[in-house]
Write a structure and sequence with these properties.
single chain; 178 residues; alpha/beta; 22% strand; globular
Amino acid sequence: MASSAGKDAPDHAGQLVVHPLEPVFDETSRVLVLGTMPSPKSREVRFYYGNPQNRFWRVMAALWDEPVPTTNGARRDLCLRHHVALWDVLASCTIHGASDASIRNPVPNDVGRLLSAAPIARVFCTGGTATRLYQRLVEPSCGMPCTGLPSTSPANARMRLGGLIAAYEPLRRAAEGE
């Protein structure tokens, strides 16, 4: 039997990923939601929170009592109508799959550029890793603190959808200028 070593062996060092997505925002964006880095599925579908098991879009739809958007255009429209900008903390990193715990050599996005282009009043980070990386790599240069929110990833199985919706309510209030 031939060995498949090398072909299917796990890449323990991870893969260098350069962020492929442009930020979603316009001149009315009041809040900025930052993840860590697009997952392989998000990179494949070319939009944020692209894994169908990720609950981000279900949470966002519930916050505004709307149907869950199923296309990239509908997702973008939901965000912009509700003054929500989307991006990620990192411009590049070495990562194994979608595991934030495996991130090495993180390089931050130029969040300051986005903050100067839109009237962002609050920054929210989805998940502990995004929050920690933002606080360490971005906040010192842009001066705007973030609010950490629980991850909507399927890896955060202990948090049910109702709990996520409740936890994201401050994002809705900030987006509406409350």
